[in-house]
Amino acid sequence: KRFIDAYEAKYHEPPPGLAALGYDGIVVIADAMKRAKEMSPQAIRDALESMQGVDAVTGKLSFDKNRNPVKPAVVVKVTDKGETFEAEIAP
Q1: Rg (Cα) of the chain, in Å, rounded?
Q2: Model-level pTM?
Q3: What separation in angstroms does the CA of 11 have from each of 6, 17, 62, 64, 73?
């Protein structure tokens, strides 16, 4: 909600879906850099691998041993009347 409000205040329109994902990308990198033992690519990579339960705009975010994101998927139904939330699928 805070992200949407801040985005709308600045740009005077609702954020597109990719704006939230882009913001989350920055949150993920910033978190990994804070937790890394040093600012080397390897240390940041290791911090990404150990990331668990980071609060992101699109929900709680964790990574598996291959550094792939583990988070729920959202199903949105699109009709000629607009978009509606249908379900959230747990990872």
Answers
A1: 16
A2: 0.70
A3: 9, 14, 30, 35, 27
